[in-house]
Design a protein that fits this description.
Two copies of one chain form a homodimer. Chain A is mainly α and 355 residues long. At the A-B interface, helix 5, helix 7 and helix 8 of A face helix 5, helix 7 and helix 8 of B.
């Protein structure tokens, strides 16, 4: 029997790991030089956060994350016909803003672990987590503005808009945790702010630095926004059913934090006996003084009900829907063929990843 | 006997309160509109911080601070020959950054009161203090960058540099609290970062928005930097000997926080019996488990030793020295005569204030 040829042969030949690796290789030295500008002890605390040193200050080579954003920022420059290198300051600025938000969010959410390591507030205290987060945010703007071009000014403006949305999204996320019901629409809006906006910025910032017009930049942002929503839907699935070995988080991580993530919200919205039972259980949990001591089995039972009510399947489909819209958005503009194939391959990677 | 005529009669006729009031009147509506952009509950939390509502959400008219920075930003525009109104976005951006730092610093320092009211983290929790601080910082950049001119880009760059220094200064301030000895030089460097940089930016940002060249902007920054050092020296005096009724802080506020402020550092550096005795006491305090329960008398005894060792007098003189350097800096450039008189009068106000 003949094998079926792939629909888009170019996509199948894209080496996504090489793309991610290129982003890391080009961005990391600039990121390290930026962090070196901080006065002690902020330089050390930031180096710990990025995994370059351990808690005792010894050189280390810890997992620095997937680095999807730097890879996108470099591709973004190529999308505008500029060399990938033109996107480097954009890649670094976006990484700085992303890590500013991780430092502050981990503290606000009380998360003790990230990427298999103790979080900064746990090792260096809350004040350093606040301060170094602030410093990374400021550094991001400094790095772009010191380029001094009109393009860099436009890039900074897009980054600032994205950062404002990121903060809005975190505010919504926190306020939803205290509410009994959140609609699917509210959840998608929050995730668009919290994850979509910065991914959208990553995919447009290189192009803007490379002199792209607003139409190309906006189209790339649209791709990035929907890619972000797909990314977050997958993250929400991993937050409940992810393998702790792969994610570096606790089992049932999002359930332990009462996160109103997509699977939960979709399950509560679905109706039917499992949905109703889930609603009763979560309402009781919200008042329970014993929640901190819940067993693995109790969380497993809640995850089971979410799945039974259809929340897991709905979220998987949502990831695929957003993935399709992202790819579709790219059809609106002329792009170098290899860039289109690489952006498509990165979108595929985002929805099949295990961590 | 004839009265001695004032050296600069114009200065004596400047109404500093009217200048401060103009800054408040022109900046506040734009500041409120900016804060209204935040998603709930951040808009409410920010409105509480600025004193526009009370902890229950009722309209209030609390003390919003001295508003020296907005007054300076408007004068700054006039220094470049532009209308005062040109400085408004700069005034608001600087106020946003200043208040971002207050929100985060109060949390990091554990300060429960500011301007006679409970601080944000105390009323709305640490997460909101972090989040709303972040949001104000982002809003500051947004407000400037959406103007979209080359001048606005230059203004944002100066604001970013100042913000980075502000964060450096807070990092130094925190790290000094854990050290036994800090030199006067280190203390001045920290205060230049923490207070000088943003005041310097306030005095240049209006001029930059009004099209000033770098020479005028740098001169205004120099005035602002030294004014900031004078301002902070006075703040350090008020932090120990200020009247709690006027300052809105606890008695011996900085001593309770083990702040290595100028009077303390100068006293420790002075040598002599009182200096030696102070050093021994503070070293013992650092190890004391009972420090939290110290009586008024114990703090008063430490303040007495600081004064005896000459720390209070040295700091008063330092305020006057920096005041003189600030005024002197203005001689390097052409300025409209009323602007020069007003900048001089504001400098005078800063060193004689009681709160």
């Amino acid at each position: 029997m003949p094998t079926v040829p792939p629909v888009n042969p170019a996509v199948d030949t894209v080496d996504v790991n090489a793309l991610l690796e290129r982003g890391r290789t080009l961005a990391t030295p600039v990121l390290r030089a930026a962090v070196d500008r901080l006065v002690p002890p902020m330089d050390t605390v930031a180096a710990y956060h990025f995994g370059w040193i351990d808690a005792e200050g010894r050189p280390s080579d810890a997992d620095g994350g997937k680095a999807v954003r730097p890879a996108l920022a470099l591709l973004s420059a190529e999308a505008a016909g500029a060399p990938a290198e033109t996107g480097i300051p954009g890649a670094v600025a976006v990484e700085l803003v992303h890590n500013f938000s991780l430092l502050h969010d981990d503290l606000m959410d009380g998360d003790e672990q990230r990427r298999h390591r103790d979080t900064v507030w746990k090792v260096h205290g809350p004040a350093q987590a606040i301060l170094v987060g602030d410093a990374l945010f400021a550094l991001a703007n400094e790095l772009l503005l010191e380029i001094g071009t009109v393009e860099a000014g436009r890039a900074t403006r897009r980054l600032t808009t994205a950062t404002r949305k990121l903060i809005d999204g975190q505010a919504q996320d926190i306020s939803y945790e205290h509410r009994e019901r959140v609609t699917v629409q509210e959840c998608l809006e929050m995730e668009g702010n919290k994850t979509g906006a910065l991914l959208a910025c990553a995919v447009s910032i290189g192009a803007v630095l490379g002199g792209a017009d607003d139409r190309l930049a906006d189209t790339l942002e649209s791709y990035g926004h929907h890619l972000g929503l797909a990314f977050q839907a997958v993250d929400d699935l991993l937050g409940i059913w992810g393998d702790p070995e792969a994610t570096g988080k606790q089992t049932w991580s999002d359930l332990r934090q009462r996160k109103k993530s997509l699977p939960v919200v979709a399950a509560l919205d679905a109706g039917g006996p499992a949905s109703k039972r889930l609603g009763e259980l979560l309402a009781a949990d919200a008042k329970s003084s014993d929640f901190e001591n819940f067993s693995e089995e109790e969380f497993a039972a809640r995850a089971e009900l979410i799945e039974e009510a259809g929340g897991r399947e709905w979220t998987s489909q949502e990831a695929r829907r957003q993935h399709a819209v992202a790819i579709e958005a790219l059809n609106g503009v002329e792009l170098p063929e290899h860039v289109r194939a690489q952006l498509t391959a990165l979108a595929d990677f985002v929805v099949v990843r295990k961590r």
